Amino acid sequence: MLGAVFLIPLFPFVGFLVLAALGRKLGNPRAGWLATAMVLASFVTTVIVFTGLFERSPASRSYTQTWYSWFTVDRLHVTASLLVDPLSMTMALFVTGVSTLIHLYSIGYMSHDEQFPKFFVYLNLFVVSMLILVLGGNFLLTFLGWEGVGVCSYFLISFWFDRPSAASAGKKAMIFNRIGDAGFLLAMFLIFERTGSLQYTTVFSRLGHVGTPSLTAIALLLFLGAAGKSAQLPLYPWLADAMEGPTPVSALIHAATMVTAGVYLMCRVAPILHLAPDAAHVVAIVGVATAFLGATIACAQNDIKKILAYSTISQLGYMFLAVGVGAYVAAIFLMLTHAFYKALLFLGAGSVIHAMGDEQDTKRFGALARLMPITSITFLIAWLSIGGVPPFSGFWSKGDVLENAYAMSPLLYVVGALTAVLTAYYLGRCYLLTFRGKQRWAEARRDGKGAGLHPHDPSWLMTLPLVVLAAASTVAGIINLPIHPFDLLQRWLDPVVGAQLRQLHFSVGTEWVFAIGDAVLAALGVSIAIGLWRRVAEHPALEPVFLRRAWYIDWAYDSFVARGSTEVAQVTFDDVETKGIDGAVNGFGGLVAAAGRRLRTVQTGYVRNYALGLMGGLVLILAYVVVRAFA
Amino acid sequence: MTVSAAWYLTLAAAMFSIGAIGLLVRRNVLVMFMCVELMLNAANLTFVTFARELNDVGGQAVVFFVLVVAAAEVVVGLGIIVAIYRRRLGATADDIHVLKG
Predict the structure, then answer these.
(1) Are residues A466 and A573 in the same domain?
(2) Which end of chain A has less neighbouring CB within 10 Å, N or C?
């Protein structure tokens, strides 16, 4: 059954090829159905492979399927091989599952778009790349998928490329990711240089011979790559701009799956990170700082998708905090639950944006709960879930992370806890501004179209994914309860990261204290939000400019990096290129042309002139001979 | 009575000079052509003279080559001249300067 693993990326790949060739002919909505069917087939295959892996004994739950030898250069042998183990299957399962739902949703969401088939071409290509990323058996194959998802992200952010903001947001994402990818590449070079292989299993078996400084460097470089892909400090600003893409893209790529690739990579290289504690500290600190920063910015945003984007940045920071403190299972657990509720939040936001005629400003929503009951209730569930209200899934996953952070350092716990309160607060603000309070969309619309709107829940294509994801967000906590025989995910992932896990030695009483503490934090955030935003839509003191402008970090990038390099480029262009290089080339050409113009007058066309030349030559030769003879 | 080599060489030099000057100053294509022949034959005469003086048959052999080349040249040259005269009557060499740079 494990042999079927090659079918997992193959299905969406076939979908991609067929849609790329015949997408236009299939048209709307058949292209969308084909794409969805392919991803669903991939999901079913993943379930089959998953059960196959599950039936094996924990110690033998690792299976490598080698397709062929990819290439060989000197000592470097790279195979195209897939690695099936609990970690990769967990990832594949939720990637294909969430992808299927979002494909389904997209059929409804994109139904009015002229480029409908093209959207699904990119979406299927994305799923292929993401599956290669998580299933790849070596660093290089993972990197292939890594770049694949990057380019799909670029295509999809800039999907409405006739909007200048979308085009430049795509470029921004590309450039920030390039910085991270450079780190990934350098890490691979170093890994190969130290261990002589890029195959995960081989590399990890040879780590004993590698010195700690090298391991620290490798871990930090990989983290640079992960920080680019997963929008961590200082490479996070692209994710907020990535919201220019269609909302299902934001849900699938920029919330649930692609941006978690960095967390996956860090968990995959847990054996390296385990041996490089300094690097792990850096990861934890950057993670918690990003979590806090993202949460504060999200408190002051008005664009519903921007709120969710900064929320994603913040939650990814949480995952890196978990990775940094050695709680890999908690990181994966949070990644899973986050995929459910963040995809749900984005899809809910998409429904609202659709209903409001492409308006995204929460200040221009309000009182939609009665008009859009399904969207409202599912959004509420997502809010309570991400806010960490028991018994929703976020309570369990976030609690897991915070507990582990406390075991490492109480300071990390304090910042993490503060972030948890903020998380519950800003999403409460988002929910209340959108669905409760006074109705503001009729008169507040700038284009005056507000009065003609009749907001309602979308068709079943779009509500079905909402309901499924809401159910998943509610109950996903049961896959890893903190009580022994129910810590399923912990035991499932044990063969992969068990040896590197931080062991917690908390008594049952302490566990209860943590659990109650988490619940209190969530309740605090929720009640502050309700108290402040239930009726009122404006609290200028709570939305200071520096938070609305995202701590001026974009501005700083612009002034210190973008403007400087633009100036250097301009000087290089004007002086070096135009005057220097072009000048030299054109000058030489001009010289030859001028010489030619002068010399052509020698060719008079008169025979006598040529004859005179011959005679002159003859006289010269004779003169030379005579002089030689007498000298 | 033998004529010394100096006379032959003087004659050859004179012929060559006449030919060269004629080539430079005349405008009639046919006359210019004859001047070239004059110069060629001046060179031939020099070769033969030295061949006799130095008792070396090589000089005479070269003359044959020159004659052959000259004959070929006459064929091509006269052909061109005839072609020119067909196009324009009484043309001088200066009228034909289409290859002016």
Answers:
(1) no
(2) C
